[in-house]
Amino acid sequence: MTGSTILDALTLQLGYNASLVAVGAALLGFAAGATGSFLYLGKRALVSDAISHATLPGVGLAFIVMVTLGGDGRALPGLLAGSALSAAAGLLCVTWLTTRTRLSEDAAIGAVLSVFFGLGIVFLTIIQAMTAGRQAGLESFLLGATAGMLRSEALTIAAGGALVLALTLLLRRPMTLASFDPDFATASGLPVRRIGLAMMGLALAITVVGLKIVGLIMIVAMLIIPPVAARFWTDRVGHVVLIAGVMGGVSGYTGAALSATAPDLPTGPIIVLVAFALFVLSLLFSPGRGVLAALVRHRRHQARVHVRQGLLALAQGQPIYEHLTLRLMRRRGLIRPDGVATEAGRAQAARALLDERRWQILRADPRHEAAAARYDGLTPLETLLTRDQIAELDRTLKPEAVT
Amino acid sequence: MIGAEFVPLSLPPLLIGVCAAIACALPGNFLLLRRQALIGDAISHVVLPGIVLAFLVTGAVSAWPMMLGAGFAAVLAVVLIETIRRVGRIEPGAAMGVVFTAMFAGGVLLLEQSDTSSVHLDVQHALYGSLESLIWLDGLGWASLLDPQALRGLPPELPRIALTLIFVSAFTALFWRPLKISTFDEGFARTLGLPTGLIGLALVIVAAIAAVAAFDAVGSIIVIAMFICPPAAARMMTNRLEAQIGWSVGFATLSAVLGYVLAGYGPLWLGYANAVSAAGMIATVSGLLLARAAGFGPCRTRAGAPVEG
Amino acid sequence: MTLTLAAADGRPAPAEDLAHFPLAIRGLTVSYGEKPAVFSVDASFHPGAMTAIIGPNGAGKSTLLKAALGIVTPLSGQITCYGRPLARQRERIAYVPQRASVDWDFPTRVIDVVLMGLYRQLGLLGRVRQRHLDTARACLDRVGMAEFATRQIGQLSGGQQQRVFLARALAQGADLYLLDEPFAGVDAATEKAIIAVLKDLKAQGKTVVVVHHDLATVRDYFDRVFLINTTRIAEGTVAEAFTETNLQAAYGGRLATAQMGAAV
Q1: Of the candidates C30, C189, C182, which has an alpha carbon nearest to the alpha carbon of residue C97?
Q2: Phi, psi (5° rounding) for residue A363?
Q3: E strand or H helix that includes residue C257
Q4: Which of these, A304, A298, A402, lies nearest to A354 by C-alpha position?
Q5: Based on the domain organization, do A358 and A254 belong to the same domain?
Q6: CATH no. for residue A186?
Q7: Where does residue C10 fall: left (phi above 0), alpha (psi -120 to 50 degrees), or beta otherwise?
Q8: Domains by residue range for chain B, with CATH
Q9: In this structure, how many other beta carbons lie within 10 angstroms of the beta carbon of residue B219?
């Protein structure tokens, strides 16, 4: 594979079918990222796992029924309809188990996905016997396969991607309200239950459309990974949905296009791995919730706590036992290597003690309740109050305390 | 069915199925109570990249390196999930979803990239195993069970899964108290000086060992089903952990036996010539048992929220 | 007014004196995220006394207790139990967590929960013998729950659950008892039963520390108080430290609300 083939692939020059699939995957990825955000924010991310595994018996049964009726068992619309029906049945089972029994949702999801999947495998072995060893091609639903796809199949996928995306955009506002604050949504008259059902229906539709591209085992990645990654970049629901959609679209498009360049690059895994790469980047480098930023903040916070505690101890003539405190204070030139305070150390210690005493008075004073709530042992009072307010506090201090 | 062919053809797969089912159900009880039921799902997905990697490293399809590879992948997945959950402050379900799908995708990609077509290593096999093929040609009848020469011809999966079952049972028995206390009340367990983090990790590693050994013989569907369905059904039969373990072992055994028999003989009874997947059928039966317990089990609903005041 | 500052009032107890205290905390800071829940707190809980840890909601009361027990990891600070590190004194400490901290749907019976308190005697594999069962039953009896021994724990009322937790702590046979909000959401009969058991423990020379939220009952129940609001506000006997001034310092503008429920 050369650089120019990749470029060709990304600019949709690898043939009509491949381009259709890439566009379909991009649309589907966007819809999946956006819809998945609502599931993730409602803490129901893995419900999609039950949905996707529950499609298998439907695929198998639809094949058997279509062959029994004398038709072509591989007709995509029939298989997709079957998968949608059995996924809906799986979803019903999850709901029934969680509401009517003591099982928690995760156990219900696990039970449904394994049992439905097992049943699906039973059907697949029946089909193997029916077709007398000829490949029915249904295995491609497990892992997805876009190579050698029929024109009509590629069209179905592109149209399906466009449809689910349109539905997602249409339902975006009620879904935002219902997943962000269900109580408020109920109070303002929204049919929260029905919106929840619609959300599940959308996830189901995405799963069904995605079966042929990424396969039922990995389709859940498109619903989970982009929202989790997007959550690192923003705290606002609308932005999470948008960023997750873009990430999903990019993964879908890049994955489908790249896999068209070589026969040994299966579409599903590439899409998932592109999404995962975006996730890893977000996890490490996002400025707000990213790991590196958090690590830096934690170290800084720890140092502030230790230095402040050290200064207060200095000011009150108490010994400092902790090695980390001593090391930090030496490094800042607040104490000498033998532990005695330097000039700067004494000055800062006195300031810290004065600040602490002012806080003490402020926090006991009901009039300063709002400011008192900001107390964390670290924030200097000067940053919150005006000079006059501090002067007033100082009048309450005993004269000898202000030195 | 207790004919001459029972010992060579049905006894080994039956025993393997039962051992695998119990080995998974035992840790499954604790995972269920810790709200970690889906760890079994995650582990069984990452087994694939593990064995592919082991194959690429050793260049051969042999059981031990592959089990090591799968075990390594399972532990790596658990550590990754835990790390992502903690440092990224992501809910456990989502962290799991991110890790196992990505690792599974990596496994499939590796498999496609490497030339494994010549060997028996494919995704279907990883998913639903081939319990039916684990036959014992030297077993000519019940007498063969006492014949050391014939016993040497047993499928190697059988001693492996039997050993695993012994190991898992021993772990559960030996660490029964710490497991129970730390599952019920982690804070209290820590004040007793119990290493709760270590206990949780050990439980997941034991679950991974059970999953890998079972997977080797029967594929990963049974693994997920047996982690969850028998313990979940058992929870609805009793309100005592000791009894729950007993019920789950019973359900696991019943699923394995009934599933195997139905897969092998069910189609014949219905007039079809071909058997269906035993692994799939065992999972299906466990689901039916769960449905039955969920509908009629004496302890199927919550005991009711405690009365305030 | 008396200035009682974080690590400010009085001289710190010299290291050798720590052995005197069942629980001593020095310079403890615990942060959740980047906000300290407990900042630079010193505390010495006196032997044979019943001490209430009081302060407004979110003042770090439970965090202080959990850090003292090693359940949460502090950012800085030292904790000693009878002058030695906590890890070596675990058998001398019994802990009663908040009721809501566990899943009461767990498949187990009342007597099994109390037997958990005997873990240190039973060890990994020790058999539960008649004398262990007798101990557990006696502990249940002390909290008035003897007839519930074989009940499923999910079937208990809130107050009954709290008493089972207390019975488990009694089974531990410790010298120091730490209780996190034992009176929260329990009925009057339970509150009475618990306080009777705690006073009984004190009479036996045990040390009791309780995270408490009801200012009205402090004088009746406790000998000493520890006031906290992120930092230590005051510490001493009820007469010394449970004063209007100190309460004002701890609760600030929330004092009126806190006292409203208190029919003083």
Answers
A1: C182
A2: -70, -20
A3: helix C255-260
A4: A402
A5: no
A6: 1.10.3470.10
A7: left
A8: 6-294 (1.10.3470.10)
A9: 27
State whether A118 and A262 are in the same domain. Answer: yes
Residue A311 shares a structural domain with residue A208: no
What residues make up the domain containing A394? 292-401
Question: pLDDT band at A399, cuts 50/70/90?
Answer: low
Give tens-digit pLDDT for C132-177: 999 999 999 999 999 999 999 989 999 999 999 999 999 999 999 9
Substitution target from B182, B184, B185, B191 for chain C, most C beta carbons within 10 A: B191
A246-270 mean pLDDT: 88
Which amino acid would we find at residue C181? E
Residue type, C116: M
Copy the structure tokens of residue A290: 């990213």
Neighbours of A124 (CB within 10 A): 25
Q: Say yes or no for a CB contact (<8 Å) between C71 and B33.
A: no
Highest mean predicted confidence (pLDDT) among A317-331, C14-28, C185-199: C185-199
Q: Chain C contact for A53, CB < 8 A?
A: no
Q: What is the DSSP code string of B65-117?
A: HHHHHHHHHHHHHHHHHHHHHHHTT--HHHHHHHHHHHHHHHHHHHHHHS--T
Give the C-alpha separation, B287 to B295, whole Å. Answer: 12
A297 Cβ contact partners less than 8 Å away, ≥ 6 residues apart: C34
* C15-260 CATH, one of 3.40.50.300, 2.40.50.140, 3.30.1360.30, 3.90.550.10: 3.40.50.300
Same domain, A88 and A196: yes
The domain tally of chain A equals 2
Beta carbons of C76 and A324 less than 8 Å apart: yes
Asked if B91 and A49 come within 8 Å (Cβ–Cβ), the reply is no
CA B5 to chain centre: 28
In whole angstroms, give the CA distance from residue B186 to residue A12.
Answer: 55
Question: d(Cα B211, Cα B214) in Å, to the nearest integer?
Answer: 5
| Paired tokens of C2 | 């008396």
Q: What CA–CA distances, in Å, run from B296 to A375, B232, C177, C264?
A: 56, 13, 44, 54
Nearest one of A344, A348, A316, A341 to A326, comparing CA atoms: A341
Same domain? For A262 and A321 the reply is no
* Distance from C-alpha of B250 to C-alpha of B293, rounded to nearest angstrom: 13
Q: C85 touching B, CB under 8 A?
A: no
- Nearest alpha-carbon partner for A356 in A332, A376, A370, A328: A376
Q: Name the closest residue on chain C to residue A309, using Cα atoms.
A: C40
Look at strands C224-229 and C50-54 and give their pairing.
parallel
Residues A234 and A302 in one domain: no
Residue with tokens 């006073």: C199
C90 close to B (CB below 8 A)? yes
Whether A282 is covered by a domain: the verdict is no
Residue A279 lies in a domain: no
Is A95 domain-assigned?
yes
Above 0.85 for ipTM, yes or no? Answer: yes
Q: A248, A48 in Cβ contact below 8 A?
A: no
| Percent of chain B as helix, strand, coil, to the nearest 5 | 75, 0, 25
Q: Give the percent of chain C with pLDDT over 70.
A: 90
**Residue corresponding to tokens 């952990």:** B241
Q: How confident is the model at residue C263 (pLDDT cuts 50, 70, 90)?
A: very low
Residue contacts between B and C (CB atoms, under 8 Å): 98
Region B164-186: mean pLDDT is 96
Q: Express each pLDDT in C47-80 by its tens digit.
A: 999 999 999 888 899 999 999 988 898 988 889 9
Instruction: Indicate whether A276 belongs to any domain.
Output: no
In this structure, the answer to whether residues A228 and A327 fall within a common structural domain is: no
